[in-house]
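Section 5.1 Outputs to date
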Amino acid sequence: MLNISPQSVENQLKNQKLYSIRLVSTPRTGRIVTWWLLGILLILFIFMFVPWQQNVDGAGQLTALSPEERPQTIQSPIAGRIDKWYVKEGQYVKKGDTIVVLTEIKEKFLDPELIPRLQQQVGAKQGVINSTIQKAQSLSNQISALNSGLILKLKQAENKVIQSKLKVKSDSIDLVAENTNYIIADTQLTLGRNLFNKGFISLIDYQRRQEKFQQVAAKLISQENKLLDAKNGLLNAQIELNSIRADYMEKTSKADSERNSTLAYAAEAEGDLAKLENEYSSMLVRNTFYTIRAPQDGYIVQAVRVGLGENIKEGESIITIMPSNPKLAVEVYVRAMDIPLLRPGNKVRIQFDGWPAIVFSGWPDVSVGTFGGIVNNIDAVESKNGKFRVLVVPDPEDTPWPPQLRMGSSIYAWAMLDNVPIWFEIWRQLNGFPPNLLQEGVKKSEDKEVNSEKAEKK
């Protein structure tokens, strides 16, 4: 049993059908399974050190890179009724081709002669404005004439006042002279009375002196009256001067007020004219909205409103158009925890829905049926589904995307990151660490070394 003797009895025992021997011997099947398990474990152990490319996966759909090249709905700019269709679903249209024609349904715009009537209103209002401006100009001319007449009248009245002042001054001088003559005549009369009483002069001489005195007194009174008349004339001249000023001021103010009222009416009429012109221009533009045309080259995808005579509201969608020859891109929705790992320019592998593929996400070189892409843009905010959208464009260095792709097709994508051993990837997945944990640790250690070197230099 111990196989010590050179003469082995093992072969003899195998040939003997002993139950006890069969119980203590190792079955052949067990040995085979053991060797297979050891081989599988060895292969798995070696397999753990095989390189694995980390990746960030996400699902999404096919779209266009430019917003204007994505499917869009054509909306009605006005409320109306569908009168005639000029396209069919699936038809290719060029920019400016007629899609559908609408008719008016609002009472305000039902008049077929609305535009000519609006044009007549604009012309009539323009005529009113021209007449009002001419009236204002006439009033301005009238005010100018009143001001010129006022200047002449004031000059004439001022001259009259000056003449009256000179006459008052002249009469005042004459009054002084007559008063002097009166004093002299009175003195001579008194002396003549004394001489007559004493008998030195005759009665005739005395009476002559009395007569002369009376004449001088009469002249004095007459001169006083002239002076009073002159003063009254000066006062009247001054009153007339003030009256002329007041009269012309009233006329000028009235004309100026009327001119301002005319200008205000002209300004109001210009505002009304602007409203009419605005309405007229709006009607001209509105007439172009009855015919809805294709905004760009593309294919008619789906009609939202289809019936003839069907009413549509303002801003309501009528039909969907798919632009032709769009620059395709893929929008992939990635978890928030993976977004910091992505950068524009990262390589991406894409599996298109409906396209046969055998995918090994960690070994992109052995995958079949996937296509290359490059991260073009990462949204700054999350989408409605709580994930971030990443736009991926075709990789010019890889196989071109299939021409059979259609907008909106589902996709699955992997953004390729660092190469690590498979054991590390399994360990990372079990712990929920980010994909490039090793790279992040290396960067942190390098940053610490750089910071320490800078601190030593300082």
